[in-house]
Design goal:
Elements (H helix, E strand, L loop, with lengths): L10 E4 L5 E4 L7 E8 L3 E8 L11 E4 L9 H25 L6 H14 L4
Antiparallel strand pairs: 1-2, 2-3, 3-4, 4-5
Helix pairs in contact: 1-2
Length: 122
């Protein structure tokens, strides 16, 4: 299945100047999401726009939330879907374990993703 979001893995980083951003820990730390100050107390998410073609190691240009497509930006959609995806993985993990399929490669992939999301062993 081909997707439009920035390929993972993703990781949060706080820069020495205090800027917080979500980026790829490999591939040159490509920005997934950052924040721009809005007013005295607020901030707005910013997302990369990549243009056409293969992303590979090529970074995108950061745009304000609305300019980047708002909630329809592929990375914003994936972030918003995370709770539903987590629930689906939990159901799949339980189903595989109850069927005695806890040693399969598919189970391991699901268990590793769940361990990353909820910080516990499966």
């Amino acid at each position: 299945m081909q997707t439009e979001h920035t390929p993972g893995p993703w990781a949060w980083e706080t820069t020495p100047s205090g800027e917080v951003r979500l980026q790829t820990p490999d591939r040159g730390k490509l920005y997934v999401m950052g924040f721009a100050r809005k007013g005295m107390r607020g901030a707005q998410p910013r997302f990369s726009l990549w243009g056409d073609g293969e992303r590979g190691r090529r970074g995108g240009i950061m745009h304000d939330f609305a300019e980047a497509g708002g909630a329809e930006h592929p990375d914003a959609r994936l972030i918003a879907a995370a709770p539903v995806l987590l629930s689906a993985l939990q159901v799949a993990e339980l189903a595989l374990r109850e069927r005695g399929l806890g040693m399969t490669d598919e189970y391991k992939q699901i268990a590793d993703a769940l361990a990353m999301a909820v910080r516990r062993e499966f």
